[in-house]
Amino acid sequence: ENVLTQSPAIMSASPGEKVTMTCRASSSVSSSYLHWYQQKSGASPKLWIYSTSNLASGVPARFSGSGSGTSYSLTISSVEAEDAATYYCQQYSGYPWTFGGGTKLEIK
Amino acid sequence: EVKLVESGGGLVQPGGSLRLSCATSGFTFTDYYMSWVRQPPGKALEWLGFIRNKANGYTTEYSASVKGRFTISRDNSQSILYLQMNTLRAEDSATYYCARERGNYDYAMDYWGQGTSVTVSS
Fold it and tell me: Does residue B104 carry a pLDDT above 90?
């Protein structure tokens, strides 16, 4: 099983700040199969970034994704209050698909 | 508009069974892989398994944690996805989501239901 470790588990940022969260895999993942989801409290997850760097429909351009191999990241260039959520990475490199433990982003 | 609506959750005793349904609309159901994902209260998402599309013979894959106890199936005539859960344990208590793989075989899930809650307790 390919274990995904997300860091930090919790982060706090002020509006306008740039933030980066990471997702590290225990084995290499093709960039085509690494995705990010946003989940707000009490809501279902939403696909946010697919295949490492492609923004899902409706996702603001201040979000970006990058990475390769075992290290991936999600960056918000200028955080806004509406970005408060937990972000999960997910991978496919064989079965099972796995999710990371999540990074909770809090806005100051 | 794509819609996924889960139902069938509730309280069940340890060792019991439950069948969850996911009614879908707004897309050609047979063209898509469909997954089940769960989330225990306050914890992370866990992929349980999926069923492939018509082009790939509706075959299934499961995580080790549920293989042999849970079965994913689909009624293609009614566009409904099912999750049959047997021999339930306390650790199966979670919100259960159905989700659609976005159709590009990259295994990203682009639409999710609202979830249905399952509690396993005596």
Answer: no
